[in-house]
Amino acid sequence: MTSTVPASLFRTNGSSALQAVFLDMDGTLVDTEGFWWDAEVEVFADLGHRLDEAWRDVVVGGPMTRSAGYLIESTGADITLDELTVLLNEKFEQRIDRGVPMMPGAERLLAELARHSIPTALVSASHRRIIDRVLASLGRDRFTLTVAGDEVVRTKPHPEPYLTAARGVGADPALCAVIEDTATGVAAAEAAGCRVVAVPSVAPIAATPGRVVVRSLEEVDVPFLRTLISGI
């Protein structure tokens, strides 16, 4: 896809060096994908509905509106999308307030990116109120900027979140590496023209040209990410 980021914002040093790294939040940096599903199960139980475990793969990684809308349609629950969004966010916040576990390798990778002074952005489909609570555990100073799902017109799988991140750090999307755990996030990053490292958390993701799949962040470091870009 052709980038919509103004060329004047790109770094134009003529090299193919890694310019920035963008990371998803839930399931990538913090082990919270299960938190969302638990919140959905609990809310719908309160409404008198039981969620099918098979639906978990459908809603994982998607924007709140898509996931919530799918569950309303699938269950026939008598609730509006706006009402459900409020309930889900409240249940999720209750869980993250009790502590947010980081994914294996996340702490080390963030520290390494900081040591190398590589611009780093957190790009999530979660709303700003959720991101800010998680950042209290992750550390705001670790990110050059953060992009929330309710701060863009079109969230993942649309490329807008990653194009927004590239614009924010003044980087060419083609020279940025994205780390994602879901097919929805991978689709967004690839549509933005970024190089992608997939770390599947719930559903499997296949490797393709331009996309590397690893088992955990423990396999990812700065030299590895630089190799992705230099191989273009």
UniProtKB/TrEMBL annotation:
Highest taxon in the source lineage: Bacteria
InterPro entries, A to Z: HAD-like_sf, HAD-SF_hydro_IA, HAD_sf, PGP-like_dom2
Signal peptide, first to last residue: none
GO function terms (MF aspect): hydrolase activity
Keywords per UniProt: Hydrolase
Entry keyword tRNA processing: no
Pfam families listed in its UniProt record: Hydrolase (PF00702)
PANTHER family assigned: 2-DEOXYGLUCOSE-6-PHOSPHATE PHOSPHATASE 2, PSEUDOURIDINE-5'-PHOSPHATASE
Protein name: HAD family hydrolase
Protein's organism: Streptomyces wedmorensis
